[in-house]
Design a protein that fits this description.
globular; two-stranded antiparallel sheet; 4 strands; alpha+beta; binds zinc ion; 63 residues
Length: 63
Amino acid sequence: MWNYSNAPRCTVCAHRAIITKQQAQTLVNSSEGRLVAYQCPIELSSWHVWAPEFERADQGGSE
Ligand SMILES: [Zn+2]
């Protein structure tokens, strides 16, 4: 069974998990809007998900 925690990591995207578009969409659908999916700019067959609400706080609001 696929597990997000065991997914390989993308070294160019802050070590986000590398998942398929379908897996990303499944996570987004089950997150009630908290997760956002995006396509890896380097590996176009790879997708990542992230949570803007939580990760924005981690970055201290610097833009
Ligand atoms: Zn990536």
